[in-house]
Specification:
Strand content of chain B: 35-45%
Largest sheet of chain B: 5 strands, mixed, barrel
Number of strands of chain A: 1
Strand content of chain A: 5-15%
Structural class of chain A: mainly alpha
Radius of gyration of chain B: 22 Å
Largest sheet of chain A: none
Distance between the termini of chain B: 46 Å
Number of strands of chain B: 6
Order of helices and strands of chain B: HEHEEEEHHE
Oligomer: heterodimer
CATH superfamily of chain B: Bacterial OB-fold
Order of helices and strands of chain A: HEHHHH
Structural class of chain B: alpha+beta
Chain lengths: ~140, ~150
């Protein structure tokens, strides 16, 4: 009987003693991304895929970018609608159109240059990410 | 038998009387561990010597970018670090994390922030136009590019 009690007590302590449990979760963006931000992330993904093909020497003659006009998207807030955004967005759309008409590494780089120019002027945060799209570093 | 029940009841009270403590760790970017942290003072010394140091440190969040959560200011000892996220690849909450403990893995280095960039950060932080225009000089600050961040809830 005594033995039974000791075993029971030990088991109880093992089962119920205070434990620190860890709950973990991994997050990339905890905030609600705007329509404009989501468009840019989508653009980046499309450009990243084509960059990979260019670097591998794959045929890119059939590649097409499907990208909406940036300035027509809802931004995070109105402060993102700065002077120059529309003209930069149109210049970007023109470079995309040029690529789609004649896909080439040169026209790809022209698109990336437009990304850099616009972000240098209007929102420098993503420049580091855009740098990853540059073909020659 | 009565004695047995009494002993078991007391043991249960001692063993289960306190609730289980749950520690929530939220990872942003790469999943890192909260172990092998480097003392901030050691990091500072190494940055002075080699310019850039790959390290994992702990601090307290002072402020995060109020617009997109794309940067944060972190207090480590008496210094304030400007923390950005590697390749703009992840973000932290825009609000609700000020004062929370944070662990960051990445590169510490000194950086000169241009007037344009400082004004942009001030705009992100929601500062008034008047305050933004008061920024007229670049700043030489200790910066940190994090590839992974843990915010402890």
């Amino acid at each position: 009987m005594k033995k039974l009690i000791i075993i029971s007590v030990v088991l109880l302590f093992a089962a119920c003693q205070q434990k620190e449990t860890k709950v973990t979760q991994t997050i990339i963006d905890p905030n609600n991304a705007s329509e404009m931000a989501l468009l840019m992330r989508n653009m980046f993904s499309q450009l990243e895929i084509v960059k990979g093909k260019i670097l591998l020497g794959d045929d890119i003659s059939k590649e097409q970018f499907d990208i909406e006009l940036i300035h027509k998207q809802t931004p995070t807030d109105e402060s993102f609608l700065k002077e120059g955004l529309e003209s930069m967005s149109n210049a970007y759309a023109y470079s995309v159109k040029t690529f789609n008409e004649e896909p080439s590494a040169k026209h790809f780089s022209s698109i990336v240059s437009n990304c850099t120019s616009c972000h240098t002027m209007l929102c420098p945060g993503p420049l580091e990410r855009i740098d990853n799209l540059i073909l020659e570093k | 038998m009565k004695k047995t029940i009494s002993i078991l009841s007391i043991a249960t009270l001692f063993a289960c009387g306190t609730p289980t403590e749950t520690k929530v760790e939220v990872f942003y970017g790469d999943k890192i561990t909260s172990e092998n942290l480097t003392e901030y003072s050691n990091v500072l010394e190494k940055v002075e010597v080699s310019g850039v140091v790959n390290t994992k440190i702990e601090g307290t969040i002072i402020e995060t970018c109020a617009k997109k959560g794309c940067w944060m200011k972190v207090k480590a000892d008496d210094d304030t670090l400007m923390v950005r996220f590697k390749d703009y690849a992840f973000f932290v909450p825009k609000e609700g994390v000020d004062g929370k403990s944070v662990i960051m893995n990445g590169e510490a280095f000194y950086d000169t922030l241009s007037v344009d960039l400082l004004r942009h950060y001030a705009e992100d932080a929601g500062d008034s136009e008047e305050d933004i225009l008061l920024i007229t000089k670049p700043e030489y600050v200790l910066s940190f590019t994090a590839d992974g961040v843990i915010i402890q809830e």
